[in-house]
């Protein structure tokens, strides 16, 4: 391709072509040796003084240079009309490069060289003017003979020491031939026929010089004498210009100029013999071009000026503009030759390059004015000349701007003839900041905008008239200048058009028209691939068939396309292409010691795509990119571009565009795979895996109260549980140890696992299920060709799963597999593979709270920095901003190993299932307090026996009770009652002896019986069967001290009917009986007392309770008293009870039928009792092993003692009195609980048996005898006579278990109406043994009639006086009457 150097008009193009089967590397090596000669000194060129060939020859003392250029591609044949207007556009010589071995001969090489020239150059062209073939010997044993005398062949032996010197000599000889041919060409143009050809059309061509007829004169030498070789300046003082003009002397005084006297020799014929109808301007312009190419700029400028004088009066705009371009080039060549970079004629007020710019601006305007018509074949070439002139002008200013001003560096950039564009050292850095580019503008005096404004003139409708080759070269050079100037977006805009031109050429070059079909292909019908006509006319119809396809150059086009998109803010490499031949390592081969960096994981987890650019433009460019990749075709690139666009431009793409791109990528990947392409794409859709968890439970629905569905979690029957070996030796009565049991501790720090320490237990060779949460942020369904677990540790067998994730949703899938050995299984993450893509591992580490906080902080930092800093131009790309952030999050310097989900693989375990149960539909209906049984049959369906079985129960009341206990807000009594309900009255219970020494062999069944108790508030329950095979033939436990169980759960729906309620419990004193006045009521009462086995009334009390029936059926309620013998009485009072009641206290009961909606009160006598100080000093216990809870309120010692007395007497009362119920007329029965009843202080005083029993009697002595007689007593009241002495007898009995010393105080109310003998206070009673009684009589007289109250209070001798320290108290009521009352 043409590099469009500014001084290309002064470059002698020498085409380098390969000859024969020379390798490309060898050709490039030898071509580089030839290209090292960028110029040849005129003094080194051998002169030829023969005839017309000496006209352009330099003198031996010339100091100028001939500038060379060595392209490797010939110009297109469409440029042939420019052969006279622009001779520098064509190769003036050809050098063939051949590499010969011992099997090659000079004749064959020469024949190949000649054949190549015939193929490259048209037969009617005048170029090349010279040709040569350089033959490089590859080895020393070649058979090349130099005696063949073939013209144009030069052999370079392999043993030659200084090949460069020889190549330089050969190039000098070749340049001499070129310059000599210039004279021959000019002689032909000077002829009338040649001048007519030169002026015949806008872009004339002449036939080969050998075909131009000679003039009628006898000789060409006589009719048309050539211009002298040492004097080429015409005489312009005469009206009729002739070659015999007066001699003219031109002296140049510059260090780089040669000094010569231009003396013209007399011409033999006047120039008037040339066709007078034609102008001489074009001839003079051609002379200037040839002198410029010959390295004689001083002569070229003279002829250019002469041609410009003639062009001013004509309308030959194209030739006029070409002459101005040549004159502008001459000025730069002269400045380069001078060496100081300044022209002598330049004024101080003007820049050195101003005149050159003016000439180029004028030339551009003249090219634009050239008359053309629609369909003119020269229109394309004129457009090419116009755009080339603009590029010459732009490159001229660019060379000065990039060289920081006018000088040698700028001339080097203008004259650079290399095959690639020359980039000055000031722009050789990879990145040029805006400040650096503006500094160049300031130093050079030329702004970037001025260069870009000139360059922008290229873009216009004339581009459409250019040929495809010319359009590509012009646009390519334009984009390069824009890129160097820092206008990246303008560069991208131009490169888009370059891509369009390339695709047009590709489409036109495809053999899809059917004309190239081989005759050997038979015609068929059906698919429409070949023609179906039978007329014999060649041609195909239907589907076009591509006979051949080449992918050469596709990578360059795609690279160019990616660059364009990157400038516009589109990263087409967001999804990478990988080689499909490199398979990823299986999960088993992953090095477990590999340490991953937190920085890499953070960058993978935080994918914040910052929007950039014009979305509408980006969408259009994406469509073009996909279309370009499809047109190449490069199907992996199609998929890469489409998926990269979806990944980075999701917010800018519409729903239809996203669906279209995704479907296009799938089709492209399928096609590539079908065509055998080994490339694939990496996974592109971010992180699809959200979480991975081991699925230990399943969710089931069950009906509750037939009103709502409740979601419950039931542990999987196959989930193993690790237990210590000590559990096998636990004694009966300890808290449950198996899963499902209630932990006796409210908070057990030993059971709180640290983060990352817990390992899930799985069973060897059993299917494991892992719940994987996937996400799809796109509006289309995302397909995953393969989804599998990535594991390490023990071997894991798993099959990949094909998944389709619905649009804009999270999707859960279950991956299954088996662990083949025991040990530790590590779940690193998932391996994901999209259709046609490469597999990628996404790790899912277990993050601590600190790591999650670090990730959150990093996301917040990036979100805060987004848009905070302003970058200019292309530096504002998201990937550039990420690299230049002012405050980046600190990266983790040291790599840290992640912690992953780990599973402990335990040995194979047996499996148990429930065969049948006695329940219907798993439902149980009970009355409150009713007891029932459930029969469950278990079956061992595994190949291993079961020798360990435990049952643990759970119900709906346990969780609420445990929560209340854990809160610690309840009182001591409520806490005890809650624990009593949980432990002493569980809903489900079983006999542990039934499963002792159990063995369930494979295939065997076993039936268990479970007891159920109705408890109000229980709605559902669960029976957990924990089982294992512990005593194995080959121990697998080792020294770990653990074994593993499995758990089988059976849920039960429970309905408990609440029908009886107990209220208003009370303890009343036992009423006294009057033995004197007996009537029918007294007989009934006495009979009832005998039935209830009531003896001394003072030792008994009445237990009273109200029972209400809230159900729709009547119930028979019975309360029983259990105080029989010493077994039910207190041991420490056994002797006292035996003395008072030798026959013991038999049990008794009272019953009543409670109708629906009514309430009944039941009363039963109970004997008073007393508890020992040892028992009363005990604190209120906890029935479980729950930790002790400190009371929130601090009680005094007396209050604490009172509280303990309430508790222990209440517990003893509930032990003595029990309630039962039975359905009237039915068989269902149960217990009636009293645990909700409370005891008051009066009830406690009534129930408690005091240390001393005090009995008061009134006795009287008759007048006739000295025998004592009891005073009349009725209903516990005595009726003495007023004004008569009676005796108050006090009987004191020591009821305590030890001897006591008592004192007694008596009190009478009203005391002023009672007369007594002696003292009433501090009466010494003496020492009484346990059970001993003592009586004291005192004479008293009632002085008035009415009711009197007499109290006798007994205290221990050493006890202080208070209500709490008295040992006993007696009371007597006397109704005093008149003496005449009988």
Compact summary:
By secondary structure, the protein is of the alpha+beta class.
Detail the topology: elements first, then pairings.
Blueprint: E1 11-19, H1 24-35, E2 39-41, E3 65-69, E4 93-100, H2 106-120, E5 130-137, E6 153-156, H3 163-190, H4 192-198, H5 220-223, H6 281-293, H7 297-311, H8 317-338, H9 354-369, H10 379-402, H11 408-415, H12 434-444, H13 448-455, H14 468-485, H15 488-509, H16 554-567, E7 577-579, H17 598-605, H18 615-631, H19 635-648, H20 655-674, E8 679-681, E9 689-694, E10 697-704, E11 708-715, E12 720-724, E13 760-763, E14 767-776, E15 782-793, E16 796-798, E17 801-805, E18 809-819, E19 823-833, E20 840-843, H21 849-865, H22 878-883, E21 901-906, E22 912-917, E23 923-927, E24 931-940, E25 948-955, H23 956-967, H24 972-983, E26 988-989, E27 1005-1013, E28 1020-1028, E29 1042-1057, E30 1060-1069, H25 1080-1091, E31 1100-1109, E32 1115-1121, H26 1125-1128, H27 1134-1140, E33 1148-1154, E34 1159-1167, H28 1173-1176, H29 1197-1216, E35 1217-1223, E36 1229-1232, H30 1241-1247, E37 1252-1261, E38 1268-1270, E39 1273-1274, E40 1277-1278, E41 1285-1294, E42 1300-1309, E43 1314-1316, E44 1323-1328, E45 1333-1342, E46 1346-1356, E47 1366-1376
Parallel strand pairs: 1-3, 1-4, 4-5, 5-6, 13-21, 23-29, 40-47
Antiparallel strand pairs: 2-3, 7-8, 9-14, 10-11, 12-29, 14-18, 15-17, 15-19, 16-18, 19-20, 19-21, 22-24, 24-27, 25-28, 26-27, 28-29, 30-31, 31-34, 32-33, 32-35, 35-36, 37-38, 37-41, 39-40, 41-45, 42-44, 42-46, 43-45, 46-47
Helix pairs in contact: 3-6, 6-7, 6-8, 7-8, 8-9, 8-11, 9-10, 10-11, 10-13, 10-14, 13-14, 14-15, 15-16, 16-18, 18-19, 19-20, 23-24
């Amino acid at each position: 391709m043409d590099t469009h150097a500014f001084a290309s008009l002064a470059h002698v193009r020498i085409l380098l072509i390969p000859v024969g089967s020379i390798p490309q590397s060898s050709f490039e090596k030898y071509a580089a040796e030839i290209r090292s000669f960028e110029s040849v000194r005129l003094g080194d060129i051998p002169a030829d003084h023969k005839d017309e060939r000496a006209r352009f020859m330099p003198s031996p003392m010339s100091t100028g240079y001939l500038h060379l250029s060595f392209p490797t591609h010939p110009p297109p044949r469409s440029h042939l009309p420019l052969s006279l207007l622009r001779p520098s556009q064509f190769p003036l010589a050809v050098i063939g490069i051949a590499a010969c071995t011992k099997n090659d001969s000079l004749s064959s090489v020469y024949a190949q060289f000649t054949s190549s020239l015939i193929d490259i150059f048209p037969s009617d062209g005048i170029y090349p003017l010279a040709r040569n073939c350089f033959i490089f010997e590859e080895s020393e044993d070649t058979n090349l003979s130099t005696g063949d005398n073939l013209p144009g062949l030069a052999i370079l032996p392999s043993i030659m020491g200084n090949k460069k010197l020889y190549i330089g000599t050969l190039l000098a000889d070749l340049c001499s031939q070129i310059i000599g041919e210039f004279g021959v060409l000019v002689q032909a143009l000077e002829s009338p026929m040649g001048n007519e050809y030169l002026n015949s059309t806008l872009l004339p061509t002449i036939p080969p010089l050998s075909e131009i007829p000679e003039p009628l004169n006898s000789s060409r030498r006589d009719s048309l004498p050539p211009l002298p070789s040492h004097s080429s300046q015409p005489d312009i003082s005469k009206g009729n210009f002739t070659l015999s003009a007066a001699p003219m002397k031109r002296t140049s005084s510059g260090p780089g100029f040669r000094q010569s006297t231009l003396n013209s020799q007399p011409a033999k014929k006047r120039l008037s013999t040339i066709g007078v109808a034609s102008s001489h301007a074009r001839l003079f312009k051609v002379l200037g071009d040839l002198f410029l190419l010959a390295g004689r700029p001083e002569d070229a400028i003279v002829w250019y000026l002469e041609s410009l004088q003639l062009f001013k009066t004509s309308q030959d705009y194209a030739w006029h503009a070409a002459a101005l371009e040549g004159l502008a080039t001459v000025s730069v060549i002269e400045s380069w030759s001078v060496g100081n970079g300044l022209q002598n004629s330049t004024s101080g007020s003007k820049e050195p390059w101003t005149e050159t710019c003016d000439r180029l601006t004028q030339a551009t305007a003249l090219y634009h004015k050239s008359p053309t018509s629609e369909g003119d074949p020269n229109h394309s070439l004129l457009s090419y000349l116009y755009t080339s002139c603009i590029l010459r002008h732009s490159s001229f200013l660019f060379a000065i701007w990039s060289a920081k001003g006018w000088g040698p560096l700028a001339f080097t950039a203008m004259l650079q003839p290399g095959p690639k564009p020359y980039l000055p050292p000031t722009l050789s850095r990879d990145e040029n900041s805006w400040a650096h580019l503006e500094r160049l503008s300031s130093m050079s005096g030329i702004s970037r905008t001025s260069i870009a404004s000139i360059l922008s003139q290229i873009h216009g409708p004339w581009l459409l008239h250019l040929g495809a080759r010319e359009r590509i070269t012009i646009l390519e050079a334009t984009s390069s200048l824009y890129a160097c100037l820092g206008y990246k977006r303008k560069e991208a805009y131009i490169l888009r058009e370059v891509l369009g031109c390339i695709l047009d050429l590709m489409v036109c070059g495809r053999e899809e028209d059917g004309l190239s079909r081989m005759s050997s292909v038979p015609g068929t019908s059906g698919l429409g691939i070949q023609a179906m006509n039978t007329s014999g006319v060649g041609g195909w119809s239907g589907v076009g068939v591509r006979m051949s396809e080449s992918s050469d150059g596709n990578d360059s086009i795609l690279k160019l396309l990616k660059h364009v998109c990157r400038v516009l803010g589109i990263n087409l490499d967001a999804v990478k292409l990988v080689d499909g031949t490199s398979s990823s390592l299986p999960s088993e081969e992953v090095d477990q010691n590999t340490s991953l960096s937190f920085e890499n994981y953070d960058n993978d987890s935080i994918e914040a795509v910052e929007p950039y650019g014009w979305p509408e433009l980006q969408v259009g460019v994406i469509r073009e990119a996909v279309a370009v990749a499809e047109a190449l075709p490069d199907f992996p690139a199609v998929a890469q571009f489409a998926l990269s666009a979806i990944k980075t431009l999701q917010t800018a793409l519409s729903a239809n565009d996203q669906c279209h791109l995704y479907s296009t990528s799938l089709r492209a990947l399928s096609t590539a795979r079908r065509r055998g392409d080994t490339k694939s794409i990496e996974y592109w859709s971010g992180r699809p895996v959200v979480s991975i968890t081991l699925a230990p439970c399943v969710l089931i629905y069950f009906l509750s109260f037939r009103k709502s569905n409740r979601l419950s979690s039931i542990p999987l029957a196959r989930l193993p549980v690790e237990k210590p070996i000590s559990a096998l030796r636990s004694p009966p009565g300890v808290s449950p140890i198996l899963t499902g049991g209630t932990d006796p501790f409210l908070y057990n720090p030993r059971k709180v696992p640290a983060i990352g320490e817990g390992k899930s237990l799985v069973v060897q060779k059993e299917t494991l299920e892992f719940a994987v949460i996937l996400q799809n942020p796109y509006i289309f369904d995302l397909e995953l060709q393969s989804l599998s677990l990535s594991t390490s540790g023990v071997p894991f067998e798993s099959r990949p799963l094909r998944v389709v994730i619905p649009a804009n949703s999270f999707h859960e899938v279950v991956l299954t597999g088996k662990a083949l050995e025991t040990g530790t299984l590590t779940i690193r993450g998932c391996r994901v593979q999209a259709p046609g893509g490469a597999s990628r591992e996404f790790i899912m580490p277990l993050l601590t709270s600190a790591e999650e906080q670090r990730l959150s902080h990093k996301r917040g930092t990036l979100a805060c920095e987004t848009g905070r800093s302003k970058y200019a131009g292309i530096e504002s790309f998201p990937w550039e901003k990420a690299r230049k952030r002012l405050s980046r999050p600190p990266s983790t310097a040291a790599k840290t190993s992640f912690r992953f989900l780990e599973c402990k693989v335990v040995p194979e375990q047996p499996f148990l299932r429930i065969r049948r149960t006695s329940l219907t539909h798993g439902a149980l209906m009970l009355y409150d307090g009713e007891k029932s049984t459930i029969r469950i049959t278990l079956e061992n369906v595994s190949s291993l026996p079961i020798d360990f079985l435990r049952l643990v129960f759970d119900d709906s009341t346990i969780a609420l009770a445990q929560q209340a206990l854990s809160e610690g807000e309840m009182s001591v009594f409520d806490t005890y009652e809650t624990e009593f309900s949980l432990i002493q009255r569980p809903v489900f219970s079983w006999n542990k002896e039934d499963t002792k020494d159990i063995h369930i062999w494979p295939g065997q069944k076993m039936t268990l019986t479970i007891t159920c108790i109705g408890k109000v508030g229980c709605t559902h329950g669960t029976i957990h069967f924990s089982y294992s095979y512990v005593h194995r033939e080959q121990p697998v436990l080792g020294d770990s001290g653990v074994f593993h169980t499995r758990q089988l759960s059976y849920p039960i729906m429970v309905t408990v009917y609440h029908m009886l309620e107990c209220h208003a419990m009370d303890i009343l004193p036992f009423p006294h009986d009057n033995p004197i006045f007996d009537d029918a009521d007294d007989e009934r009462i006495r009979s009832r007392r005998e039935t209830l086995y009531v003896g001394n009334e003072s030792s008994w009390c009445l237990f009273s309770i109200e029972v209400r029936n809230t159900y729709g059926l009547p119930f028979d309620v019975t309360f029983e008293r259990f105080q029989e013998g010493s077994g039910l009485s207190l041991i420490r009072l056994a002797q006292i009870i035996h003395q008072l009641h030798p026959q013991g206290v038999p049990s008794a009961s009272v019953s009543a039928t409670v109708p629906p909606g009514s309430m009944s009160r039941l009363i039963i006598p109970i004997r008073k009792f007393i508890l020992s100080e040892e028992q009363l000093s005990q604190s209120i216990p906890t029935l479980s092993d729950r930790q002790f809870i400190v009371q929130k309120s601090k009680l005094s010692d007396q209050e604490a003692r009172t509280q303990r007395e309430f508790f222990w007497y209440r517990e003893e009362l509930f032990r003595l009195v029990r309630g039962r119920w039975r359905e009237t007329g039915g068989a269902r029965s149960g217990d009636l609980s009293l645990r909700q009843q409370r005891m008051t202080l009066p009830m406690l005083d009534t129930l408690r048996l005091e240390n001393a029993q005090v009995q008061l009697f009134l006795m009287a002595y008759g007048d006739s005898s000295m025998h004592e007689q009891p005073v009349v007593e009725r209903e516990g009241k005595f009726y003495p006579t007023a004004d008569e002495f009676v005796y108050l007898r006090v009987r004191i009995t020591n009821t305590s278990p030890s001897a006591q010393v008592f004192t007694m105080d008596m009190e009478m109310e009203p005391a002023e109406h009672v007369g007594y003998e002696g003292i009433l206070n501090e009466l010494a009673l003496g020492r009484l043994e346990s059970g001993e009684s003592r009586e004291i009589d005192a004479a008293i007289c009632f002085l008035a009639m009415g009711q009197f109250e007499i109290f006798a209070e007994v205290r221990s001798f050493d006890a202080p006086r208070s209500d709490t320290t008295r040992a006993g108290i007696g009371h007597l009521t006397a109704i005093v009457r008149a003496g005449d009352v009988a």
